[in-house]
Amino acid sequence: MPEPAFQDYYPENVSHCYGCGSLNALGLRIRTRWEGDESVTRFTPRPEHTAIPGFVYGGLLASLVDCHSTGTAAAAMYRQEGRAMDTLPAYRFVTASLHVDYLAPTPLGVELEVRGRVKRIEGRKVVVEATVSALGKVTARGEVVAAQMREGFGQV
Ligand SMILES: CCCCCCCCCCCCCC(=O)SCCNC(=O)CCNC(=O)[C@H](O)C(C)(C)COP(=O)(O)OP(=O)(O)OC[C@H]1O[C@@H](n2cnc3c(N)ncnc32)[C@H](O)[C@@H]1OP(=O)(O)O
């Protein structure tokens, strides 16, 4: 049995996200785990994720960086407290800021590896940096500021 992924601990009401929700049938349904101090997601883009034939759409790479990093932010908060991700109080993070630099074209048809590192945890926010690699070469680099969701998120 593979180790559970961070996303396995997301409660149903936050499992509909296009990038990471296990309940979104049309989504990416990424799965992220710790490998030492780094978080890792592996994902193989599909033909519909094409930008230019043979190469991956940048928005897809941004989605991978985004959901990889918000998941990493939540996992990092639990880890800092020495708690399992299914324990209370629950941590839920949303994207406050997403920055991606595209360093080289990303080939389609191969597995991509997203690796994240926690840069800092400051109060209610976690800053995560991530790289996307194809065939061992880093093709995109990103940084996400993830902020803890407040009660009543989305209510105006
Ligand atoms: C078991 C585990 C479960 C995990 C479940 C995971 C669920 C996953 C769900 C799927 C998710 C998938 C991903 C998605 O698609 S999430 C969907 C896309 N994101 C959103 O819709 C978020 C919309 N924005 C907001 O709700 C609020 O503006 C937030 C919550 C972001 C902050 O408003 P809030 O009033 O709450 O807090 P605050 O203003 O005191 O800010 C807090 C800290 O953050 C810093 N800051 C704020 N903005 C920025 C910025 N632009 N650049 C840099 N920093 C920024 C700010 O300076 C402060 O830091 P500091 O000054 O204190 O140092």
TrEMBL record:
* Reaction(s) catalysed (UniProt annotation): (9Z)-octadecenoyl-CoA + H2O = (9Z)-octadecenoate + CoA + H(+); decanoyl-CoA + H2O = decanoate + CoA + H(+); octanoyl-CoA + H2O = octanoate + CoA + H(+); dodecanoyl-CoA + H2O = dodecanoate + CoA + H(+)
**In its UniProt record, which GO terms are filed under biological process?**
fatty acid metabolic process
Q: Which GO terms describe its cellular component?
A: cytoplasm; membrane
Which stretches make up the Thioesterase domain?
Answer: 54-135
Give the signal peptide, or none. none
**Coiled coil: which residue ranges?**
none
What's its EC?
3.1.2.2
**Tagged with keyword Hydrolase:** yes
InterPro entries linked: HotDog_dom_sf, THEM4/THEM5_acyl-CoA_thioest, Thioestr_dom
The lineage's top-level taxon is: Bacteria
Q: Does the keyword DNA-binding apply?
A: no
Which Gene Ontology molecular-function terms are recorded? thiolester hydrolase activity
What membrane topology was assigned to this protein in its record?
Answer: Peripheral membrane protein
The UniProt family comment states: Belongs to the THEM4/THEM5 thioesterase family.
Please name the PANTHER family in this protein's record: ACYL-COENZYME A THIOESTERASE THEM4
Name this polypeptide is given: Acyl-coenzyme A thioesterase THEM4
Q: Which organism is it from?
A: Mesoterricola silvestris
Lineage here is: Bacteria, Pseudomonadati, Acidobacteriota, Holophagae, Holophagales
